[in-house]
Amino acid sequence: MNLRTDKTSVDTKKSWNDVIGQFDIQSYDEPDNTSTSTTKKTKLKAIHKKQQLFKVSTTFSVWIMRGVIVVACFATLGNIPFQSSITSRDTIESSNFAISIDATPSEQQSSEISETFSPRFQLDPEFQKLSLPNRAIETYIGHQVIDINSKWTSYTVKSYDNPANILHKVGLDRSITTLLRDKKIKAVLAELKRDNIVRARSVNNKLVELLLAPSYKKAYVIKPSSDGFEGIWEGQWLNKVFEIRQARSSFVIKNGLFFDGKKAGVPGNTIRQIIKVFDWDIDFAHDIRVGDRVTLVYEEVFHDGDKVGSQNLLAAEFINKNKEFRTVRFTREDGKSDFFTPNGREMKRAFIRTPVAHARVSSHFNPGRFHPVLHKMRSHKGTDFAASRGTPIMATGNGTVKFIGRKGGYGRLIVLTHREGYETRYGHMTRFKSNLKQGAKVYQGDIIGYVGSTGLATGPHCHYEFRQNGIPADPMTVKLPNSMSLTPYELANFRAKAINLVLQLNVLHRFATSNVNINSATGG
Q1: What is the edge-to-edge ordering of all strands in the sheet holding 337-340?
Q2: Residues 338-382: pLDDT tens digits?
Q3: To the nearest 5 percent, what fractions of the chain are helix, strand and coil?
Q4: Are 457 and 428 in contact (CB under 8 A)?
Q5: Which domains does the chain carry?
Q6: Pairwise CA distance, residues 133 & 394, whole Å
Q7: pTM of the full predicted structure?
Q8: Which of 210, 313, 341, 384 could form a disulfide with 273 if both were Cys (CB 3.0 to 4.6 A apart)?
């Protein structure tokens, strides 16, 4: 710029406006010798604008510098991988955090601003490098980090196992004698049944923990004595040793239900639950087709981060011959769990036809039958199932014990009442199931008594009656209700608790039909 001054020298005590008023600021290209007061005001505004931008640039650079320093401090203190290494002080000092703004007064001024406000990290030599572990520490949320040299060995008990064989299966041959010397440990081992879990953890070939689990709800945990005496063990029962997680899977049947299910990682006992639930609607011997799809949500059991088994089927969808069947597990207020459709109706039929398995029908329902004992015409209001004395008798549907005891020609009799006006009777029993009393809840398939010949009977059999609203009907030909619906209170509770599983089935159905792999997708 050309700066022309008047004869009067500039007084340093004058204001800025007084000083710049004595200068005629001209352009390099077009000097203006006839500047008006309006032009001067315009140029003064431009100068003020540049000054304001200069201040903004300066302030912004300072705050950026402060922010970088704060982030670096938090990263170091919090062990955040901000930088794996800081090589040298010279490298840091060469970093330039200057902010470039187009509206700076000049390139020279911008350079001066950058040099003035470039940060300098003065770090202590011991902080020059941030050392990181050779590999990430693998942990699972909810479990403490255990000794990486320890080793768990698991075994699922078989029906033919004995205590010594169980300990051998988990690699405790050296400790068998001392463990079985403890009467409590030996008793717990003897009570273990098929499919129970046994786990042992050793360090340097020495047992440090043994877990005997009769169920997934509790376990007997054994450890070496705290006194330090070798061969002395301490044990205690602990609850909530195992963790239950939800797992999801979907597969298409190509070679067989069990084969393709196992290939998709679904446990065998979960497949068996699927068959039991859908057996009322699907004939698994004749109806299964290549291309049928199974989608399910079930429970997997974990201990100390290791999967040790599976538990309940929670929800499932079976598409058979392009027809969709769905079920959701629900636990009633009385603690009994069963499977229902998303609308709240039981998956199983309300009743089964016969109360005695593999029994022979010795006398049919007949209103005009000649009674073999009384030797006169007398209506036979039920069906007789002949079987050996002591054969179990099952409840044909969910109900409540209305009567239990002796009653005339029925002999030992149990009367069950069911929903929607249904009633069933079981006569001529030799004895009742122990602890079964009037008012007790029973469920379809429960043993309620045993075949006998009490009352007016010529031989051991079960006299079975089926009534609706008090009217007897032939249990072999009557049209049975498909299923029982929940009560209004239970239905409201079902909808509140089952909505999450129904929504999961909806999402999994879309994923499965879109060929998205959801197998082994674990959630909460």
Answers
A1: 337-340, 323-331, 306-320, 293-303, 243-252, 521-523
A2: 899 998 888 888 898 889 988 888 888 876 555 555 555 557 788
A3: 25, 30, 45
A4: yes
A5: 36-127 (no CATH), 151-239 (3.10.450.350), 244-349+514-523 (3.10.450.350), 360-473 (2.70.70.10)
A6: 64
A7: 0.58
A8: 313
